[in-house]
Specification:
mainly alpha, 434 Repressor (Amino-terminal Domain), 71% helix, 0% strand
Length: 91
């Protein structure tokens, strides 16, 4: 493990609130990264996607970088515009 991983593991073990906030924040970041990767995979720019969704480029950036509070309907439209299907699973 590297120094950062060690720090995070120790901090999570000693601070329950940090652990909860960290895990939730990481999941949001990871989800945003998946959305961004899907957009880039299709070769569509943020500007073009914003036009498709009748919104601003800044809204697309916010979804990709701070995806912790995005409506399901927005995610469905995002996926559809990329020619993808949105699947949600509880595991």
């Amino acid at each position: 493990m590297n120094d950062l991983s060690n720090y995070i593991a120790k901090r999570k073990a000693s601070d329950a609130e940090f652990a909860l906030d960290y895990d939730e924040g990481y999941q949001a970041l990871k989800f945003g990264a998946l959305l961004k990767a899907a957009r880039k995979e299709t070769g569509i720019t943020q500007e073009a996607l914003a036009d498709m969704l009748h919104t601003q480029k800044s809204a697309i950036s916010r979804i990709e970088n701070h995806s912790d509070d995005v409506k399901l309907s927005t995610l469905e439209r995002f996926a559809s515009a990329l020619g993808k299907k949105l699947e949600i699973r509880l595991v």
